[in-house]
Design goal:
This protein is of the alpha/beta class. Helix content is 41%, strand content 16%. A hairpin with a 4-residue loop joins strand 1 and strand 2 (14-21).
Length: 298
């Protein structure tokens, strides 16, 4: 798997780092990752499972993470103010991030793709469905929500971990992330926390930008509730959520499925806010079957 850079992508004319895996003749699937998480968040084994099921997979770094453009010259994001309702420090919104994703497809010569988003990536995929319906063939929203703050909220013990002192050194970032995973990881499946630590270290060495993550978080809060617009989405939609998701309560997945006409909801018992290795086969089957149903109906 080789990372490439697409330049002058979308209306923002930014650089996007991406990888293409599989046969370009197979149905294209764009994987969109969550808050502050690089394309590495889509594990190689999961990618290989999707490719083995006949899909052409593209994963990429959102703006402000990984090897894509970081908006270092933007105003400082004020996360506490955004949490309190003042999102005036937002440098961009989910609409801009959605336009980045569609712009990447344009740069690759792909007119439309199946969108699969996890967590904030689900917010972005939903925004694509709302604002760029010609570019999306189907929607899969994983451990995500609608933007309605009455659903899909983190539990108090998650907030307690996240609100600790900022992590700045490599070891602090690893320790903080592992501590977070101990709270949000799937209780119904084995989680290798040594592997989590190793992967965090790799991501840190590749690119570390806490302000970029904060800009993404403010962008989410500045984008508001998508529920009314989701009711007008006319796309085959699959919603996947964990029964024990403490970062984004399962009510967020239920609300997403309820908002989009005809959406299918799959709640995976014992799954938290992660993609544990044990569910990869089922996850790959669900995504591939969803994509192939749409392709065969064309």
């Amino acid at each position: 798997m080789t990372v490439e850079i697409a330049s002058n992508v979308g209306p923002a004319r930014i650089d996007i780092a991406y990888e293409r895996i599989g046969d370009p003749k197979d149905p294209p699937v764009l994987l969109i990752m969550g808050l502050g998480t690089q394309l590495l968040g889509w594990h190689d084994g999961l990618i290989e499972g999707l490719v083995a099921r006949g899909l052409h997979v593209i994963r990429f770094d959102n703006r402000d993470v990984g090897l894509s453009t970081h908006l270092h010259g933007a105003p400082l994001p004020n996360l506490p103010a955004a949490i309190a309702g003042d999102t005036s420090s937002a440098s961009y919104t989910l609409s801009d991030m959605a336009a980045d994703a569609v712009g990447l497809l344009d740069a690759l010569g792909i007119s439309s793709a199946h969108m699969v988003g996890a967590s904030m990536g689900g917010f972005i995929a939903q925004t694509i469905a709302i604002e760029h319906s010609n570019a999306i063939r189907s929607l899969t929203s994983i451990m995500s929500s609608t933007g309605d703050r009455t659903v899909g909220q983190p539990s108090p013990d998650v907030l307690a971990v996240l609100m600790g002192p900022p992590a700045t050194t490599r070891q602090q970032v690893i320790d903080r992330t592992v501590a977070t995973f101990r709270v949000i990881a799937s209780p119904g499946f084995d989680v290798n926390f040594d592997e989590v630590a190793q992967r965090v270290g790799i991501a840190y060495d590749r690119a570390f930008d806490p302000l970029g993550m904060a800009r993404q978080a403010v962008a989410v809060m500045a984008s508001g509730d998508r529920t009314p617009k989701l009711r007008n989405v006319k796309l085959p939609t699959l919603v996947i959520h964990g029964s024990h998701d403490k970062m984004c309560d399962v009510s967020g997945g239920r609300a997403t499925a309820a908002a989009i006409p005809g959406a299918e909801l799959v709640v995976i018992e014992g799954m938290g806010h992660d993609l544990p290795r044990a569910i990869w086969p089922r996850l790959c089957d669900l995504i591939a079957q969803h994509v192939q149903r749409v392709e065969h109906a064309k």
